[in-house]
Structure formats: C-alpha cells, structure tokens
Write a structure and sequence with these properties.
Largest sheet: 3 strands, antiparallel
Radius of gyration: 43 Å
CATH class of one domain: Mainly Beta
Oligomer: single chain
CATH architecture of one domain: Roll
CATH topology of one domain: Nucleotide Exchange Factor Grpe, Chain A, domain 2
CATH superfamily of one domain: Head domain of nucleotide exchange factor GrpE
Number of strands: 6
Structural class: alpha+beta
Shape: elongated
Length: 193
C-alpha cells in the first residue's frame, strides 16, 4: 500500500511539473520526457548503502593497520642491523693498520736501528690518522688556543708565561677529537691564569 501511495505521489509531481513546463517549446518537453524514461530510478536503501560503506572503510582500515605494522617491524629490523653492523665499515678500514702494527712489532724485536723503527711507527700513525679523517674524525687544535669549555676540559691551571697567554691553552695532556663536528672526546688541557 505504501508503495502505491508513493507511486501516486510521484505521478502527481510529474503531472504538475509537466503543467509548469507546458509553456515551454514542445521539443524541450519531449527531450525531458525521453531522458526521464531512459534513466529509471532505482531505490537504494540508505541503511544498506551506509552498511556497505562502513564495511569498505573497515576493510581499508585493516589494510592500513597491517601495512603500518609491517613498516614498523621492517624499521625495527633495519635499526637492529645498523646497530649490530654499523661499525663494520670502520673496522674494515682499520684492519690494515693492525696488520702494519703486527709487522712493526716483529721488526722491533729484530731491529738494531731505533730510528728506522721510529719512522715505521710514524708511518703507521699517519696511515691510521688518514683512515680516521676519511671517517670524519679530526683532532681538536689546542696549541695556544683560547680555552673553550665546549671542546676543552681543564685539568690544571698554570701561571701564564706571558700576559697574552691568560685564559689560553698552555699545554695539552690528552688530545681531543671531533666526529663530523661533534666532540667525541674533549681535549684535556692546562690553562694559563
């Protein structure tokens, strides 16, 4: 019964619309009626449409949650690998220096010429510093530098030999180093007062 009433109401609305458009040209009226006939109105239950949309959104959310969980696990694994194997590059670069040190120790046991041994150790030290510099490590300059708490650690104070050396580094007891402009070890210095 309710559907018959709906149909009757729709027919009345269509008749009223046709009466309003009767003043228009016959061609326009014919075009509108053929368009209305070609597109039949399909009644869609709004509740069913909403439930279908909710189901689709739930499905999308589940996919996104699973995708994010996989991403999170992959990032955790990559970080763990980086922590475990991050030093591999540096260690590989240092191994030749270790080989040189072993050869130098063997030569020191047999050597009569101390100067040759000293030169060999200096070469190894230069090679080692070259490798560290390639990795971004640089020594902190301390010779007659102004005392700076950001890069220096004062281990003692000493009367300055000249007035110009006041609050300057008089001596360095332990070299400091930076890694890519970040201090990794402060230089231990004696400061002039």
């Amino acid at each position: 019964m309710a559907t018959e009433e709906k149909l009757n109401n729709e027919e009345q609305i269509l008749e009223e619309a046709n009466v309003d458009h009767a003043e228009e040209t016959p061609q326009q009226n014919e075009t509108e009626t053929t368009e209305q006939e070609e597109t039949p109105e399909v009644e869609v239950d709004p509740l069913e449409a909403a439930q279908a949309e909710i189901a689709e959104l739930k499905k999308q959310i589940l996919y996104k949650v699973a995708e994010f969980d996989n991403y999170r696990k992959r990032v955790i694994k990559e970080k763990a690998d980086l922590i475990l194997n991050g030093g591999e590059k540096v260690i590989t670069a240092i191994l030749p220096v270790m080989d040189d040190m072993e050869r130098a120790l063997e030569q020191m046991k047999k050597a009569d010429d101390v100067q040759a041994v000293v030169e060999g150790v200096e070469l190894i030290q230069k090679k080692f510093m070259g490798i560290l510099e390639k990795q971004g490590v640089k020594p902190i300059e301390t010779k007659e530098a102004d005392f700076d708490v950001e890069i220096h650690e004062a281990v003692a104070q000493f009367p300055a030999p000249t007035p110009e050396m006041k609050n300057k580094v008089v001596d360095c007891t332990l070299k400091g180093y930076k890694l890519n402009e970040k201090v990794i070890r402060h230089a231990q210095v004696v400061v002039g007062i």
